[in-house]
Write a structure and sequence with these properties.
Beta-lactamase, elongated, alpha+beta, nine-stranded antiparallel β-sheet, single chain, 2 domains, eight-stranded antiparallel β-sheet
């Protein structure tokens, strides 16, 4: 009985019909997102989480919750640096495509031509070559990892470029090239080596000088800043143990795996990285890349034989309700991260968690759903002379579940419960009637249904909700 209002009133949850799309500043939606993230951080027992939202060129929301370091009590902020893990692959992909624009490599070049020392065993005589394109789309047939136990606790031993090459000859392909999707950190690491070989400079120097500095991503680097660890860089933690605790993870450097999983950044920088992409999508001149090159990267280049997985050149690409999204997520010892862009709405969301065991897509997906709902709703002016913020707050329904949150929403009140993996699904709108009384707006036809009444104390402060003669106190 998590949703007490819904239990007593038998509410149904479905999409509001006949709503009009309108422009909005997302003010009320961002308050809902803030309240939900704050609650979910507690209920999910995360040490810390940070989120930034960009609307085209404007960062419209950025905030951290919880702690970047639990022992030191360092607060998590939107500026807190984390390992971004596999989001690193997007920067390596941009580097590859810059060299492609310059004619220094081709997408159909074989990796052996770019790296003469490439000696991984090809066990399928019928295969086509392993190309730059197949490495960018994870369809090369290479094994997932280099031959080192770098995902194994407690040491997390990442190889150098030299060490990676030393064992490369002892590895072999898993599939013929361009046959199946096979995610490969090894493949993307080799592309990083190709960037260094073709550009005749180190991989780190190339991306700093040609991508990160020009885009002014001052907190993004192809390594982790050990001198900031436990302060401006968040400490990483394990997944939840059965007793509800988490263990601190050791500091690591990805070394030779850096092009695939070694970058550090913060939510603000990744939001700016998203803004650059929205900017480039709608301009004619070059900025780091040509607009046509970015569009090519964000076009579906690979579809698995089951037609369920699609990939661009470095980018994950998918659709929800007919709308295209793209980006990448990441997972490293102590960190989970995500970056998602929606070209249609020009909304980008970055999320960083300094712990394992919780998918950032949960938080990113909820943010998009709440923002999309805000664009669908019309503004109600019937309560224009009423201070809806007086009713805002969390209400105690722990006898049945946990808490219900009440917040203003486009001239109405929005009620939803926490915790909830999908808050938009369990949102209900209430329209002002009179004298601290509201009525639920039916989602199928917009008519008014159950009554929701607020009670105040002797000082005029709202202290409880009453529905069907049952009351629920506001949490102080």
């Amino acid at each position: 009985m998590r949703h007490l209002f819904f239990f007593f009133t038998g509410l149904l949850f479905c999409t509001i019909a006949n709503s009009q799309t309108k422009e909005t500043d997302y003010k009320d939606a961002l308050k809902v997102i803030d309240a939900w993230l704050n609650a979910e951080r507690d209920f999910d027992k995360l040490p810390g989480i940070s989120v930034a939202i960009v609307n085209d060129q404007n960062v419209i929301f950025s905030k951290g919750y919880g702690l970047a370091d639990v022992e030191k009590k360092v607060p998590m902020e939107a500026e807190t640096i984390c390992s971004i893990c596999s989001i690193s692959k997007l920067f390596t992909s941009v580097a590859v495509m810059q060299l492609w624009e310059q004619g220094k490599l081709r997408l159909d070049d074989s990796i052996g031509a770019l790296l003469p020392g490439f000696n991984l065993k090809q066990q399928y005589a019928e295969t086509v070559p392993i190309t730059v394109r197949s490495l960018l789309t994870h369809s090369s047939g290479l094994p997932r990892e280099a031959a080192y136990p770098y995902w194994s606790a407690p040491d997390f031993y990442f190889p150098t470029e030299k060490e990676l090459r030393q064992k490369l000859g002892g590895q072999q392909t898993v599939y013929p090239a361009s046959t199946y999707f096979k995610y490969s950190n090894l493949g993307m690491s080799l592309l990083g080596e190709a960037v260094a070989s073709v550009s005749k400079t180190s991989y780190e120097n190339y991306v700093e000088q040609n991508i990160l500095q020009p885009l002014q991503l001052t907190n993004t680097h192809p390594s982790l800043p050990q001198n900031l660890w436990g302060g401006k860089m968040a400490t990483g933690y394990s997944g939840l143990y059965r007793d509800g605790s988490r263990k601190m993870m050791p500091f690591f450097q990805a070394k030779g795996i850096a092009p695939a999983a070694g970058y550090s950044s913060n939510a603000i920088d990744l939001a700016h990285f998203a803004s650059w992409q929205f900017r480039l999508m709608n301009k004619a001149d070059k900025e780091i890349l040509r607009p046509s090159t970015l569009k090519e990267m964000q076009r579906v280049q690979w579809m698995d034989p089951n037609w369920k997985l699609t990939w661009g050149l470095g980018f994950i690409i998918w659709q929800e309700d007919g709308v295209t999204y793209l980006g990448h997520d990441g997972s490293c010892p102590g960190y989970r991260t995500g970056l998602t862009l929606c070209p249609k709405t020009k909304i980008g969301v970055s999320c960083m968690i300094n712990a394992q065991g919780t998918d950032p897509d949960k938080y990113i997906g909820a943010v998009y759903k709440i923002l999309n709902k805000a664009k669908e709703e019309e503004v109600d002016t019937s309560a224009s002379k009423t201070d809806l913020n007086a009713y805002a707050g969390n209400y105690d329904v722990y006898a049945w579940g946990s808490e219900n949150v009440v917040l203003p929403w486009n001239g109405k009140l929005l009620v939803f419960s926490v915790p909830s993996d999908d808050p938009e699904k369990y949102m209900d709108l209430f329209k002002y009637v009179s004298n601290d009384t509201f009525r639920r707006v039916r989602k199928d036809d917009g008519s008014l249904d159950d009554e929701l009444r607020f009670e105040r104390d002797a000082n005029g402060k709202v202290v409880r909700i009453v529905i069907d003669d049952n009351f629920f106190n506001k949490i102080k």
